[in-house]
Design a protein that fits this description.
The chain is an alpha/beta fold. The chain is about 40% helix and about 15% strand. It has an eight-stranded mixed β-sheet, sandwiched between helices. A seven-stranded mixed β-sheet has the order 7-6-14-9-10-11-13, sandwiched between helices. Strands 1-2 form a two-stranded antiparallel sheet. α1 packs antiparallel against α3 and α4 packs across α10. The longest helix is centred in the N-terminal third of the chain and has 34 residues. About 15% of the residues have low confidence.
Length: about 750
């Protein structure tokens, strides 16, 4: 340190030991004639006064000065010298210290954490230096497998298990705080969002009577039911599916102002109630049947909002102190809905008369040999006293930031709450979430360099219809579809040994590749592969991400035997997993984690745009076949052709092929080029949200996975059962489907000047 300072002092002495009458002053002045700056050199004396205000360099005139006493000049020099020496000393100390710190941040430094490596400024201002990846894909997957252990899951499962943790409760908030602290300890820059939502909870006990006989006062309930009392004839409606209700209508069973008695299963509770309401029922009773796992007193809990999010702020996020116009979701039922136990259902069934139910309607209630559909004299009285409460819920987040595109991220999420113990539905998913966060954070310390970010999210109010997740999506709707490129739901990831998955077609290929890769690992504990392409349903944790926000999503789904009951506990899950729960947790984490890592590791996103080519062609072929049949049968008021729809499907196929060619012919190490290609891929899912309907009125706008007349399934159903008076509606459905697909194809093809639009 002394050497550089002495050298600096010697050089300064040489400068000031020359002519004492003048010194050099450098002024930086902006060149108003252009963008460049020039250096202007002026020679002047201390305390000079410029005589003519002109620049010597421009006019050839020399500057004059007034000579001051020598002792004043030396005083100024000593002050300047002291300041300069002080500055140089500070600079050299800082430089040496900074160099030592940077040496400890180098990737691969022995015994040093790689989390210290951050994008640093290079020599040129604004240049970002990204650490070079030193691990290949096999290294990354091996590291993940090593860091996910059965013992760690054992500890976390014990730590997070709770008998009760309903949304907004003290236990739910306690879990949120615990997760937030874990993310803090992992240095994941954690944060949280608070939402104030309307949740419906039991008030006075709900009641059910058959004539004047009390059937029971169940403690289970269905959130968002209408409230009040209804008296009506009871009609047995099997599972409450549309085909069940059509059968009843065909055999002369009128559901108008009736009480529909429905068994659980096949479709969601909300869908059962919505279907019954369409056929005129005034109330619905839903029960779980007797089974090996259920006794007759098992209570059932759930919600009947045919939608997601807070139904009293549809389309708006429920942030505090935000004013909204009075509104209700169109998915809120206007009829009563209540759960009853199997024993209560048995009492009702044994008293019912009327026509015998068909074989497909027969069930498993013990002590009854034949079900009947009911008669006009079988009267049931239902009272629902649920009440709305303003509830604060908290979503917790942490992030592992990428180095190249940190503003692009995959989201991994799990619900935290449950009506009961919720061991399979929420506890296991929460443990998977925090263990994946721990493992991937450690991987980053050991040299893993993700290109993009991973956001970890713990949601509240999932049991009320994905309320926490949907409110977050509504709050950041304008940006999430441009930045979040995949959502992976961990809800119910392990409830048995049968593996199912519901996903966007963009993720099918990645899922299959991942299962093949992890299956080669000797420690992987196999699931029974039941289905990899289950249709995604509204109750799936990933559904609002896909159908509302247009984000490619995947949800691991299994048989939901225990969901919504107190039987969703550790003991039953151990039985369902053959006492290998922790091993199945490791396997589920490997699948979810490896999918996420692949999505943030590769230059090009592993989202298969050609999968939608196949799906579109399949649906268009079905539509075209229906149109040909209707034309030949003369069931249309005027000719209808599929030409434009077929052309739109062809446009998408060509755009997908063009993208693959661009990928093959591009220098993928060019970050800007990779980002442009990835932008085109990311927009595919979002562009399949119909732009012709309001997200407030119709939140689920996806033409393949949404609900409404604009969907492809609605068009196909209309073609199967056409009415001439609906001719205009049919043509509008054709137009909406055609131009949504064509718009998606145009954006996928690239820049507007590169399009070859055949329409």
């Amino acid at each position: 340190m002394a050497g550089p300072i002495n050298q600096a002092r010697a050089k300064i002495s040489k400068i000031f030991n020359g002519e004492p009458q003048s010194y050099t002053r450098f002024n930086l002045a902006q060149n108003t004639d252009g963008d460049n700056s020039h250096v202007e050199v002026k020679l002047s004396g201390d305390g000079e006064e410029e005589m003519d205000g002109t620049e010597a360099g421009h006019h050839g005139a020399s500057n004059t000065y007034t000579q001051k006493p020598l002792h004043n000049y030396k005083k100024v020099c000593y002050i300047a010298l002291a300041i300069l020496i002080f500055f140089l000393a500070g600079y050299l100390i800082g430089y040496v210290t900074h160099r030592k710190t940077d040496a400890g941040k180098l990737p691969g430094s022995e015994g040093v954490s790689c989390t210290s490596v951050q994008p640093d400024k290079g020599k040129d201002e604004g240049e970002i230096v990204v650490p070079e990846p030193t691990l290949d894909w096999s290294d990354i997957t091996s590291m993940l497998q090593r860091l996910l252990t059965s013992d760690d899951f054992d500890k976390k499962l014990s730590e997070f298990a709770m008998d009760k943790h309903e949304a907004g409760s003290a236990n739910d908030e306690g879990l949120a705080t615990k997760i937030l602290n874990i993310f803090k300890g992992l240095e994941m820059t954690p944060w949280y969002d608070e939402h104030y939502v309307q949740l419906q909870v039991p008030g006075n006990r709900n009641k059910v009577f058959f004539d004047s006989e009390a059937i029971g006062q169940p403690t289970g309930y269905l959130a968002y039911s209408a409230t009040g009392t209804v008296l009506g004839k009871v009609v047995y409606a099997n599972y409450g599916q549309i085909e069940d209700l059509k059968y009843l209508q065909d055999v002369g069973m009128d559901l108008l102002q009736s009480v529909a008695l429905i068994r659980a299963g096949k479709i969601s509770l909300a869908e059962k109630v919505a279907n019954a309401a369409k056929y005129g029922a005034a109330a619905v009773l839903i029960y779980p049947e007797h089974a090996n796992d259920f006794d007759g007193s098992t209570e059932l809990y759930g919600h009947v909002h045919f939608g997601t999010g807070d139904p009293y702020t549809p389309g708006f996020p429920s942030f505090n102190h935000t004013q909204f116009p009075p509104a209700k979701s169109s998915g809120l039922p206007k009829i009563l809905a209540q759960t009853i136990t199997a024993d209560m259902a048995l009492k009702i069934h044994t008293k019912m008369g009327g026509k015998a139910a068909p074989d497909g309607f027969q069930g498993n209630l013990r002590g009854i040999s034949r079900y009947f559909l009911g008669s006009d004299n079988d009267l049931v009285n239902v009272t629902v006293n649920n009440v709305l409460t303003d509830t604060k819920i908290t979503n917790v987040f942490g992030v592992i930031k990428g180095f190249v595109d940190p503003d692009r991220y995959v989201v991994i999420g799990a619900q935290r709450d449950s009506f009961g113990k919720g061991y399979a539905k929420s506890t296991v998913g929460t443990c998977l979430l925090v263990e994946l966060a721990r493992a991937i954070t450690q991987m980053k310390k050991e040299g893993f360099v993700p290109r993009r970010s991973i956001v970890f999210a713990s949601w509240s109010a999932g049991d009320y219809g994905n309320v926490g997740a949907t409110e977050w999506l509504e709050g950041y709707l304008a940006s999430l579809d441009k930045k979040a490129f995949t959502y992976i739901s961990l809800d119910g990831a392990v409830v048995g040994i049968a593996f199912k998955a519901s996903a966007s077609p963009l993720l099918y290929s990645l899922l299959k590749e991942t299962l093949n890769e992890v299956g080669r690992n000797p420690s992987f504990f196999y699931f029974t592969l039941y289905s990899l392409e289950e249709p995604m349903k509204m109750q799936d944790g990933a559904y609002p991400f896909l159908a509302f926000s247009g984000i490619p999503s995947i949800s691991f789904r299994f048989s939901d035997t225990f969901y919504g009951t107190d039987l969703d506990n550790k003991e039953n899950l151990d039985i369902a997993t053959q006492q290998r729960l922790r091993d199945y947790c490791v396997s589920a984490a490997q699948v979810a984690g490896q999918m996420a890592l692949r999505l943030v590791h590769d230059h090009i996103l592993r989202l298969d745009v050609t999968s939608y080519s196949r799906l579109i062609r399949k649906h268009v072929a079905s539509i075209n076949g229906q149109v040909i049949q209707l034309t030949h049968a003369g069931n249309l008021n005027s000719p209808l052709k599929s030409q434009w729809l077929i052309t739109a499907a062809g446009s998408y196929g060509r755009a997908a092929s063009s993208l693959l060619n661009d990928i093959q012919n591009s220098e993928l190490k060019d970050d800007e080029m990779s980002r442009n290609i990835n932008d085109r891929i990311m927009r595919v899912e979002h562009n399949l949200l119909s732009p012709y309907v309001s997200p407030r009125e119709v939140p689920f706008r996806h033409i393949f996975f949404g609900t409404g007349n604009f969907t492809v399934s609605a068009l196909i159903d209309h073609l199967k059962n056409p009415k001439k008076e609906d001719d205009d509606l049919l043509r509008n459905q054709f137009a909406l489907t055609t131009w949504t697909i064509q718009g998606c194809a145009n954006d996928l093809a690239g820049d507007v000047w590169a399009l070859d639009n055949l329409i």
